[in-house]
Predict the 3D structure of the following.
Amino acid sequence: MTKKIISAVLLIALAAPVFASDWGFTVGAHMENEMNLEDEFAGSDLYISPAVNFKVQYKDVYVKVEGENRIGSEAYLTGGESGHNLRQKVMVGGKMGFGALTFTPEYELRMTTPVDDGYDMDGTAFENRFKLRFGMNMGDHRPWLNMMPTVKTSATGNNTYYHEVELGYRYMISGNQNVALGLYNEFSTVYDSSKTNNELQARLYYSYKFDSGITLAPFARIGLYRDRAGADDNQRRDRVGAKVSYSAPNGVAPFAEAWWQGTQRDVAGLPDYNNRIMFKMGATYSW
């Protein structure tokens, strides 16, 4: 019996490094600030909003949770109505390969709870997001298709449908840089109405990884068409920005993102263009 126990312990000890290599853990935190440059739209600003997340991965399957304290407008800082919400996310996903084809599905349960006057679970809105990502590796040529059908449920139990779809093509210029073009569609229904929201964009991407390990990725979104529930003012949107990240050998990975977005308007008494900017920075640690 003693020999069997010793043998079992030795087997576990020898297998431990192999077992451990199948697991991965990541913790992260970031802060985001989003604001309009025109005072007329400042009520939709997102002030410094901290978020934390934790991810556990076993081989190609993972579970991730995230919590974000979203401060809706300047009124919160002055004690007025704020739209102050706690956003909570639970994500389960994985990756599968079929030759040159990859399939990366993810389910996300997103819950947004108002906390203006304390945590109000009865006021929570839910989103069930199904992220379906398809890619094909053909050497330097890598087309992809991303889809995200979503069912949204408001605090009053009203259901609406929303989706994002992007068809794209990436060309690998070299091992450390690539360029990509995508055609993106966003669609949503309006509760208790036959009206819908529909938007079409062209998206441009570029990524370059320096020898130092820093990756710079500028991007642009060009509004082609937008229909806002049949409104006369459809507010076509354009956005340009960049992401920068760094992966250190010790598992620390800081990142940052910034963008400017311009929304066309045709409303008497308001600016023709609503200019909006966003800054985000954070870091993750993986082991």
Summary: The chain has one domain: 24-286. The mean pLDDT is 85. The CA atoms of residues 40 and 110 lie 30 Å apart. The radius of gyration is 23 Å.
